[in-house]
Design brief:
45% of the residues lie in helices and 17% in strands. It is an alpha+beta fold and 206 residues long.
Length: 206
Amino acid sequence: MIAYLEGSLLTLKEDRIILLSGQIGYEVVVPGFVMESLKTKRPGDAVALYIYHYQTEHQPRPVLIGFNLEAEREFFQQFISVEAIGPLKASKALSLPVRDIARAIESKNIDVLKRLNGIGERTAGKIIATLQGKMSKFALIREGETVEPLPDKDFVGKVVDVLVDQLGYRIHEANRLVAEALKRKPLISDPEALFEEVYRGETSNE
């Protein structure tokens, strides 16, 4: 089961990409709101996606659907629990950011849900009936937040491991903090300096 992929962009198509990871090209279907975040990418650019892996007896060929955030993938799993919304239909429907869809569901805003590709009034009603009251977490997703792949340096992974295993951070939080630190100080070359910059970034936000 594939849950996460990092690599470089090989091909960008209308509703999917080919992601080169470990010398293997993975075809990944991406919802509209994810494609918006990838439109500025060029072949060779780094891409990181959380993956929903779909394969059944009726769909024996594996389908990978990609998301910028783990929370977006979790939302997707809730979204496909609605009657008559399967993974491929859901992927085509999600043309708006997850936070906007979640807020529309919580506020019972059928007009916003009808703006989703292939979603009419009846299906919008089913979405609200099934998911309303379960969307608060997803409504809090930061606007425009994405996951940036970390540089391939030995000490970077060690710092992430310490943040997760010893300091209690979740993996996506640790990756974000380290990525932001390296963006501010790209010439960092050892773990001590990286920890210091992560700490400086955290304390500056308090």
